[in-house]
Amino acid sequence: MTTYAIFGAGSIGCYVGGKLASGGRNVIFVGREKLASTVGKNGLVLTDYEKSQDILAADKVRFETSPKALAEADVILVCVKSMASAEAAAEIANYAKPEAVIISLQNGVSNADTLKAGVREQAVAGGMVPYNVVNLGDGRFHKGTPGDLIVELLPETASIIVDMAEAGLATQATDNIKGVLWGKLLINLNNALNLLSDQPLKQELLDVNFRRVWGLCIKEGLAVLQAANIKPVKSGPLDPAFFARILSLPNFILMRIAPAFNKIDDNARSSMWEDLQAGRAPEIDYINGAIVALGQEFNIPTPVNDKIIRMVKEAFEQQKSPAFSGKELLDKMH
Description:
About 45% of the residues lie in helices and about 15% in strands. By secondary structure, it is an alpha/beta fold. It folds into 2 domains: about 5-175, Rossmann fold (3-Layer(aba) Sandwich); about 180-330, N-(1-d-carboxylethyl)-l-norvaline Dehydrogenase, domain 2. It has an 8-stranded mixed β-sheet, sandwiched between helices. Helix 7 (about 190-195) crosses helix 12 and helix 9 (about 210-225) runs antiparallel to helix 10 (about 240-245). The longest helix has 20 residues, at about 210-225. The protein is globular, with a radius of gyration of 19 Å. The termini are far apart.
């Protein structure tokens, strides 16, 4: 049986690994001591917006704090924050067996390349996690939004994608991971806005002014991607350009055009909001910052994303969200 290692087991890693373990797969979680202690005491409880539940008793969860455990893995699902990718690659190079397959399940567009540059013989594939997972404490992890994992289709990943899906972790393959990751990054531009609002995701997105700021961020992203000749793959049923336009519509119209908004539940928050609560560094330079960097390369201005980056970094410096209203945030964009 394939052994999976979840390297960087936080909210996403515990949910993904927990689903695999619940589906009968061998899973080794590798993460921080604090979470290892919590899971060792409480086990894992996985829930989602559709009211499903998976429970794994503590004695059914193997949670290690040393990367040495990677030596046992056939598949390593990398879930560390983007700024830790180079360090993760070095640990994989030190401990993983040559035939192990590495799959990046991280925010941003450059992590798989960073991993490839740092490992030795292992095959590396990109991946995309479309949903939000919130750590509710005591080993409880809640998936608050819909979607399937997407993994780059390589000769080394074809059977793994099938195995993950058969274990109950909905997973699809793609031969255009670059487009998929850029498409997801455009959606992830709301991560920072959720932090700046200090509101549950659904409550924030019901405010048309927050959505208007999100639309401005996406439009800047689309402009720089066009200049770079990169075509983003739609994340969900809507094309990114069309999605950016409909965000300014009234709620009752938007919900008809994009019913996925109705599937976001009251517990959902962005990972960047969670990072602020936990005192972790934000991934803002790998999300909004990727738009700004590409804009600089092609001489395309990105003032909205620039402002968002500055506001997020200030919030982390002060260790507190500014809790803007949608109107306050929109006014600051002008």
